[in-house]
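Exercise 7. Given the components listed, write out the predicted structure of the assembled complex. Treat all entries as one system.
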Amino acid sequence: MPELPEVETICNDLEKIKNKKISKTFRSDKKMRFESSLDLQGLKNAEVTKISRRARYILINFDNDKTLIIHLGMSGRISLKNSFDKLKHDHFACQFSDGSWLIFNDPRRFGFVDLIKTKDENEHKMLKKLGVEPLSKDFDASHLLKKFEKKSMNIKTSLMDNEVVVGVGNIYANESLFDSKISPLRPANKISKKEAELIVSSIKKTLEKAIESKGSSINDYVDASGNLGNFQNNFKVYGRDKEKCLICKDAVRKITQNGRSTFYCPSCQK
DNA sequence: AGACGTACCTGACCGC
DNA sequence: TGCGGTCAGGTACGTC
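Answer.
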């Protein structure tokens, strides 16, 4: 699934549907990540006023004070097309008055679509506990150190904790730690102020570069218009088990931490 | 409160 | 060609 850069890319692409009015809707009868209150009636004749992103959630605001929340889970995709063919795993779709369609497809169904009142956005079960945005000013070394104070958990898993900072998934946690030369095995509460500063700047740098490259096309990731991202060509450690470290030429190592793959260079990352 | 395992799903891929 | 096992980018929840 898309991490933050991919979701950001999709949101930028979704600007195309701004000011469009919904004429038709569709939802599959498959159960998604959780039982959503998606009420298709609430979308009838609604006009898109704003597209935004919070963590990995896509928020589409309408002129009737409703907000559509979309999360892509691990395998979700949004596409904009001129026709709707009800392909396997299409779970939600809406047609606009110009005839175009927005389609949400998600084979693994870890994602979801929900419709809420715009004013309740911050109270939504999935949004209210989220930590700071990694690209905001609020995400800095002192924030990180405070969050890490009581965490004996390893730093890599800690960075993926949504209450610490949002939008840093497995790939970018690995890449950012490589960039900052910090070992993923270090307990979070043993990170110094200087190291925290390094990590923060590496995360921002890595995410910004990935957004510039329009995300990563792991497997079949494409943005809403079907364009492939190309940040995956810039991975320095992710998926490079046993390959030479780009800095020191020692072998990149793959381990498992809390059930997820971690890639790092034991020589460079201390 | 924090750590940790598990569950939710399908599909791709690998070895036999 | 087919089968079984393993793995995948996320997140919430239960239990200790």
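Discussion: Residues 175 and 197 of chain A are 16 Å apart (CA to CA). The radius of gyration of chain A is 20 Å.
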